[in-house]
Write a structure and sequence with these properties.
This protein has 427 residues and is mainly α. Helices cover 76% and strands 0% of the residues.
Length: 427
């Protein structure tokens, strides 16, 4: 056997796969725990002792402000974190952000009035704004382009896993311990990603003592500029992504995802308990069942997308699926059938969100990924921040959730139509 053939056989054995064994679990934990922190307020709003204590009874728009203020600060913080990560260090940024999460949850636990709780939510939003720029930047640093849909599906699956765990964990915490203890426990859980970034994570493969030369070369040889299969790949390094209209289409797609995320997680728990007459625990179990199957579906679509090196068809299909199935669910009298339709709609939404971030990797180079992700997510979340309050006002005005949920379906359809422009361009 020749020397070159022998090296080709041995090379895969030298692949340390640190990117999958250490980087992905760290990013996954960041997303899961951050998501639990985000959505617990929607579940807490179904807990009558909390609603009474904070004087939120019959004040749905004010209750929606708990999520709106979080989302506003979330959107404001994202471009800041994106620039900081590109210029400074992803790891140091993560340590600051996760430490701040713990402090803000402790403030929420000790709150004696709604103003203090609002301060906690604003601070938590600013701190958690680091999640998306961090995740997308580190995926760009640690994965070749041909693996980035799978990588994105892996860590963004933390959205659905976090929501599912919220449905299982938060209601029993509320029922057995009360809302203050729940916030204290969540603060303790937030130490997990902090410790992982201290002891496990590094900014890029060359900084890690565990990465083999083969793995580092695999990653660096798979950057966007070297991918001839991707349209305009070589031009990405020469021009600003902000001058590319496709970036702004993606920004609207992410806006749609944020609208759906905040809308569903703020008002779906109330809809399930008030309209579908589920108990607090029943609502939690449905939430878990709806979201827990998402990761498998996302991973399968991610593998398919990486094989094709196409992302736009998955975004369009995902948003169409959400709009159709979610609308059908609002028309059904059978609660069981409606819940199944809502679960399928959620799966479509998750695929669309995953592919939005994967497609961004086909538009910008990895050294600028923190900034481009920060702007994309920041603009999206700033606009979508008002949706929970708007939905609360619509629900209060018409004494029905139907109009509020139509806002979600309509937004998904607009995102699907815009993304369809990029399908014939082979993105």
């Amino acid at each position: 056997m020749g020397l070159n053939a022998e090296l080709n056989l041995r090379a895969p054995l030298a692949d340390s796969r640190v990117r999958w064994r250490f980087v992905m679990p760290t990013l996954l934990s960041l997303q899961i725990i951050g998501m639990i922190d985000k959505v617990n307020v929607g579940i807490v709003m179904t807990y009558k002792p909390f609603v009474t204590y904070m004087h939120l009874t019959d004040h749905r728009a004010l209750a929606g402000m708990l999520m709106t203020l979080f989302a506003l600060s979330y959107g404001v913080g994202m471009p800041f974190w994106g620039m900081l990560i590109d210029r400074w260090s992803a790891r140091k940024s993560a340590l600051i952000a996760t430490s701040a999460w713990v402090v803000m949850l402790l403030i929420g636990a000790a709150a004696t009035n709604l103003t203090q709780l609002f301060i906690s939510r604003i601070g938590l939003g600013l701190a958690e704004a680091a999640i998306w720029p961090l995740g997308n930047y580190l995926v760009a640093q640690w994965f070749p382009v041909k693996e980035r849909s799978r990588a994105s599906s892996y860590w963004i699956a933390g959205l659905s896993i976090g929501i599912a765990l919220s449905g299982v964990l938060v209601p029993p915490m509320l029922s057995n311990l009360g809302w203050r203890a729940m916030f204290y426990l969540l603060a303790a859980i937030n130490l997990i990603p902090l410790l992982l970034f201290i002891f496990v994570m590094r900014d890029n493969p060359r900084h890690s003592p565990w990465v083999s030369a083969y793995e580092a070369d695999l990653i660096e040889n798979g950057v966007l500029e070297k991918m001839e299969e991707i349209p305009n790949a070589k031009l990405a390094a020469e021009r600003s992504v902000f001058s590319n209209y496709r970036f702004w289409i993606l920004t609207f797609c992410n806006l749609a995802g944020a609208v759906l995320n905040f809308g569903i997680n703020t008002w779906m728990p109330s809809y399930l308990t008030e309209v579908r007459h589920l108990s607090l625990s029943g609502m939690g179990y449905f939430t878990a069942a709806s979201w827990i199957l998402c990761p498998l579906f996302m991973y399968l679509c991610g593998r398919w997308s990486d094989r094709l090196l196409r992302r736009a068809p998955f975004i369009t299909s995902g948003y169409v699926a959400f709009a159709v199935f979610f609308y059908i669910a609002t028309l059904m009298h059978s609660s069981a059938s409606a819940l199944v339709m809502e679960a399928v709609a959620i799966w479509g939404y998750e695929v669309a969100v995953t592919m939005t971030f994967s497609l961004l990797h086909s538009l910008d180079i990895r050294s600028r990924m923190g900034r481009s992700t920060g702007v994309l997510t920041g603009v999206s979340n700033l606009i979508s921040a008002f949706v929970p309050t708007l939905m609360g006002a619509v629900i209060a005005q018409y004494h029905s959730f139907t109009g509020a949920f139509l806002i979600l379906s309509g937004t998904a359809i607009m995102a699907a139509l815009l993304t369809a422009v990029m399908i014939p361009q082979r993105y």
